[in-house]
Design goal:
The strands form 2 sheets. This protein has a 6-stranded parallel β-sheet. A 5-stranded antiparallel β-sheet has the order 2-3-1-10-11. The protein contains 17 helices and 11 strands.
């Protein structure tokens, strides 16, 4: 089997930015993650063994001087010391346990120091997605010429509609080639087309380097979930904003607010942080309702919402992005991060619905026990974590189940 991940920076920017913040703020924290296939997919026989080999191959990856130079130039907010850390970073297969049951269902678990395991999530998800299509033979149906034309058409529609948009599609892409072609097509289209919208970059650092465009990303729910596990969910958003501000000093100022729903975030979102952060990211719930709540909150703090960036990334396609963009005019500065719809949209091929979520955390390796955590987004059907932890967090936040 060919190696699927061949570049150290074939990863989403937010994993690197979070890794940097973790080292600076939580250097001894230990974590446990677990893979979840929401479609309960039956994987081909031998899939676990192939996946183990792909994860082992990650140990040979090294960040190159070209990758460091690019990130240093395009990501000036990342402190220089972090590149020294990345030079010495080595993936470790021993952090990952992979099993497959008699029915073909996949079980993948991760455990180790947070700063070591944090860079595994996106790569492992991308491997699982691409490996599944290879081992089931579905990849032979990928028409890449048609896919390039389709990606170009999507870009044209977004640009003509005035949408500012980014590729967020590394984790569940059909293949590296698919994401490469999507980013290439949309970037070329945006360069040639004169319209009110614009393709502004990709979450994938390697592809951003290849096309010399901006790598885009800040944080994931994992940051707030880990803090909630250590210190409780009531102030997790506040502590996350505090840690982020400590590391980035006002840069990378788009906060992902929905880990425990709007209500508790709004209580934590004080005027100083509302002014410091450039905007918020909507990743669950009703996009229109969430925008209205954001606008109302800014106005309650005497902050003009029309100058604040709101990034929509909740399972979007082109049609929905255009509708939201129309609704958001005069309310904020809307932009869109679109993933699977950009990088896994082939006729007759069902995109995978897979995630890796943080389930437990301990402040230091010397602790004899982990503290469980969970995510309570605005979509109740997408709560993650065991039932007891979810119930405990719901009670702590005075939320209904």
């Amino acid at each position: 089997m060919r190696q699927i991940i061949n570049h150290f920076t074939d990863d989403d920017l937010y994993k690197f930015t979070m890794c940097c913040a973790v080292i600076e703020n939580f250097p001894r924290t230990q974590v446990r993650y677990k893979f979840n296939d929401r479609n309960n997919t039956v994987y081909p026989e031998g899939f676990a063994e192939e996946l183990r080999e792909q994860i082992a191959a990650l140990e040979e990856l090294r960040i190159t001087e070209d990758e460091i130079e690019f990130m240093h130039r395009r990501c000036s907010y990342i402190p220089t010391w972090f590149y020294s850390y990345l030079k010495g970073f080595r993936y470790d297969r021993n952090c990952v346990t992979v099993n497959q049951d008699a029915n073909g269902h996949l079980d993948v678990e991760f455990e180790g120091a947070w700063c070591d395991t944090i860079l595994l999530e996106v790569k492992v998800l991308a491997i699982i997605s691409e490996l599944y299509y290879i081992m089931t033979g579905k990849d032979v149906a990928f028409d890449y010429d048609a896919f390039y034309r389709q990606s170009w058409t999507k870009a044209v529609r977004m640009i003509d509609a005035g949408c500012i948009f980014t590729d967020f599609g590394t984790r569940r892409r059909a293949s590296f080639k698919a994401q490469d072609m999507a980013v290439g097509a949309m970037n070329e289209c945006s360069r040639k087309l004169t319209g009110p919208g614009k393709f502004t970059g990709t979450s994938n650092v390697y592809l951003a380097m290849k096309y010399d465009i901006t790598p885009v990303g800040t944080m994931a729910h994992e940051l707030i979930c880990a803090i909630a596990g250590m210190y409780g969910p009531q102030m997790a958003n506040h502590l996350a904003m505090e840690a982020w501000a400590h590391t980035y000093r006002g840069a990378l100022g788009t906060f992902l607010y929905d880990t425990y729903g709007w209500r508790i975030f709004s209580l934590n979102f004080s005027e100083d942080y509302a002014n410091m952060f450039k905007g918020l990211r909507v990743d669950s719930g009703d996009n229109y309702r969430q925008l209205d709540l954001i606008v109302e909150k800014y106005r309650s703090l005497n902050i003009d919402p029309t100058g604040k960036r709101v990034v929509f990334s909740n399972g979007l396609n082109v049609d929905e992005a255009i509708r939201i963009n129309e609704y958001a005019q005069g309310k904020c500065l809307p932009s869109f991060g679109i993933g699977t719809h950009f990088t896994n949209d082939f006729p007759g091929v069902k995109p995978m619905n897979i995630v890796i979520k943080l389930l437990a955390v301990k402040i230091t390796e010397s602790w004899p026990f982990y503290c469980s955590t969970c995510k309570l987004s605005e979509d109740k059907g997408k709560y993650t974590g065991d039932k007891a932890t979810v119930a405990r967090f719901l009670e702590a936040l005075h939320l209904e189940s």
